[in-house]
Amino acid sequence: MHKLLIQLGLRFDDPHEEQSFVRSFTLDDLGRTQAAMVLGAFVFCSFSAMDWILSPDAWAMATALRLAVAVLVLVPATLLLSRPDARPFAEWIYLVYCVVPGCMLSLIYVFLRPSFDHGAAGLIVVILFVSTLLPLRVSSFGVFAVLTWTCFALFETIATHDNPGLALVNNAEIGAAYALSLYGVGAREFRARRQFRTTGELQVEKERSEATLAELRAAQAQLVQAEKLAALGQLVAGVAHEINTPIGLALTTSTAFDHDLAELRRTVASGQIRRSDLTRSVDRLSEGAGLVFANLTRAADLVQNFKQVAVDQATEDRRRFEMRPWLTELMSTLDPILRRKGHEVRLTCPDGILLDSYPGALAQVVSNLALNAVIHAFPEGRTGTLLVDVSRLGDTQIRMTVRDDGRGIPPENRQRIFDPFFTTGRDKGSTGLGLHIVYNLVVSTLRGQIAIDSEEGVGTGVTIDLPVTVP
């Protein structure tokens, strides 16, 4: 029987899975089931009115039996299901709830006259209630059918019939009711098992997908961090190269200082100093001091700007900042890289645009776009112009456009430009993550929108719409 039920899809081979299904199947929508049990107890007792019509002299005994079943079995079984410690035995409680009134009904018809002539109708009502309103499995319904039909047949043998052939009719009707109900119960259980297994498989797949997603997010975070460090590395190299020039000039000037001071010292020590020599020495020292001050100021500005940009890119803090000075600082750190390649940068941004956003993510976006243009838009030896334009879009949004006049993007590559690991410069060390990270930062972190347009031989423009305040 066990193997047959498995083959019919009415039992799971795994005992733990079977227990989980039984618990789910019998306790699903428990409140509705308890309401049906209360209704069943009421209907069982209300049929005493039919008993009065059939046999007034036996009505008192029949009503007493009905009330006893309701008070001692039906109502307590319904209330018992409200206890959490009794719910693991829910199917046994349902079985007792069904079998007792089904068997007692046969006893009641013994006392009634004309006895079992109407017994089949009463038992069919019980069968209908059990098969439609209570969550019994096929095996439990089979136990109910065997016990109640055996009891009915047993009591029918000691009853009298006005028509002796009615016993055969009763059992034929009851047998048909059992068969049809058994099929209905089996179909309902089969569908429930299939849904239970599908739900379980979906849950497993969901957990697997969530685990995979967590791994992908962790990998993405590592890639973003690596890309940030790579961009910072390029900024460091460019800024270091740029700082070398003013510091070198300041060092050369200070060396000349030392020479002029030594010459002046020797002249003063000789006691033959002329006004023209003194004036010339002072002028040279003044000019040198100006050069040293100008070059050290330039170096200090570069370091300060780079420090702010580096702090923004290394952290993910949200803060309020003005767009124009922030963008000027950022472009000053990119300027050494762009100017070394011979490119020109044009910045257009009105004053007074305040953003409450993530400057680190925005700096990463602008840096990646600028470096991407250097690498891909302009072939080796060719120079061009990079235009960064910022404008208002009402009171709640701004639009940033980063445009180059490079060679453009071929039509077949435009749909894949934001795909991870897609690159046409892998031979130059590109990973294909720069624009993918730009897209994710704009959409996920900055809560904006990004679009790209390009024409071969004309250039490429990236348009980014950002909220003034990140929601």
Summarize this structure briefly:
With 471 residues, the chain is of the alpha+beta class. The chain has helices spanning 2-7, 15-27, 30-46, 48-54, 59-80, 90-111, 119-133, 138-157, 166-270, 275-314, 323-340, 359-377, 411-414, 434-445; strands at 319-322, 344-348, 354-357, 385-393, 397-404, 449-455, 459-467.
What do you see in this structure?
This protein has 471 residues and is an alpha+beta fold. It folds into two domains: 2-210, no CATH class; 315-471, Histidine kinase-like ATPase, C-terminal domain (Heat Shock Protein 90, 2-Layer Sandwich). Helix content is 68%, strand content 10%. The protein contains 14 helices and seven strands. Helix 6 (90-111) runs parallel beside helix 8. The longest helix has 105 residues, at 166-270. The radius of gyration is 45 Å and the shape is rod-shaped. It starts with a helix and ends with a strand.
Question: Which short descriptors sum up this protein?
Answer:
68% helix, two-stranded antiparallel ribbon, 7 strands, 2 domains, rod-shaped, Heat Shock Protein 90, 471 residues, alpha+beta, 14 helices
- Shape estimate: rod-shaped
Low-confidence stretches: none
Q: Strand-and-helix sequence, N→C?
A: HHHHHHHHHHEHEEHEEHHEE
The overall pLDDT, averaged over residues, is 82
Q: What count of domains describes the coordinates? A: 2
Describe the largest sheet.
5 strands, mixed
Rg is: 45 Å
Instruction: For the largest sheet, list the strands in their spatial order.
Output: 2-4-5-7-6
Please report the number of helical segments.
Answer: 14
Approximately how much beta-strand content do the residues carry? 5-15%
Report the end-to-end length measured between terminal Cα atoms: 62 Å
Strand elements, count: 7
- The oligomeric status of these chains comes to single chain
From the helix content, strand content and strand pairing, which structural class follows?
Answer: alpha+beta
Assign a percent range to the helix content: 55-70%
